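Exam revision sheet. Question 4 asks you to relate a sequence to its structure. Input first:
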Amino acid sequence: MAKKNLFTSENQPRRKPRGESERTKWVKALQRNNVTEESFQDAIVKEAMTDKSPIAMDHILKRISPIPRQVAPMIEFDFDPKAKPHEKAMQVLSAISNAEVPPDIGSMLISSIKAFVDIEEYTDLKERIEKLEAALNGN
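Answer key, structure tokens:
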């Protein structure tokens, strides 16, 4: 059975050309009105400071000091990467019950173990099907 839709130098996905970014569109709009980025920023600061505009002030503060993105803490616990998947999950559950791993992080780790098992099963099934097809076709 011949494989279809192989990616070759002649068979590549066609992409629409990218348009202008939103920033570029805004800068061009400012230029059409003879306004520079600096003078626009000055106007926003003036609006925030003189009229006590909470929206303008919020915008400025978010640009100057953005809210930091939350990052999961580093954790350490006994984990055997060579163990069977159900044993790995049990290690994670044990670490959760011993307060070594937060429950939300533990749940994420168990989901990752399951996703890995799913990928492994898919890969194995695909290889087995390809071998069966090859055998049926006399290869």
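Marking note for examiners. The first helix runs from residue 22 to 32.
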